[in-house]
Amino acid sequence: MGVLAASSPSLATVLDSPARVAGDSLQLPEHPAGCEVVALQNALEGFGVERTFDEVFALFDRSTWDFATSWWGDPDSVGAAYPPAVEEAANRALEGTGRTARDATGIGTDELSRELSGGAIAVVWFTTDYAAPRWSDWWCGGYRMYSNEHAITIDEIAGGNVYGSDPLRGRVAMALPAFEETWRACGGMAVLIS
Which of 23, 52, 124, 135 has the most neighbouring CB atoms within 10 Å? Predict the structure, then answer.
């Protein structure tokens, strides 16, 4: 591993070190549309909840059109799930652990940083290419789909950087302003697990 090529300078660096908190499972080559499942899997691993991709995927309700409260599509081709669906799947996985997940969409960066410092891990919605979202006309449950939609796991904000696991790249570090710009452009969507 090494520096990740990105359109913006210093946007993301792939880290050679093992995950500090969240897991570092990858979605490729098996599940090109499985980022939400892998991001949740990585978050769960950070709390010692070891589940396979298939076990995490089985926790999601399924739909042929609803990506807000269910998994829409197929993780092996095209699909997505947004915060309400990920929150529900996470809470199913966390039963009996004393941990919970909550939809934290709209949380401020300072509050997010405090939550992470307190031991939380977040699944956040981002873009596959770390560029601005390319919006579609498809809305569901107040959420809008975008063609470069992607979910990543973050576990630390420190020293002006955001650290986490990207299901396409592994462990990453991003400059906080670059992370915040893309994350906010995507709607500031987040699920916090603590």
Answer: 124
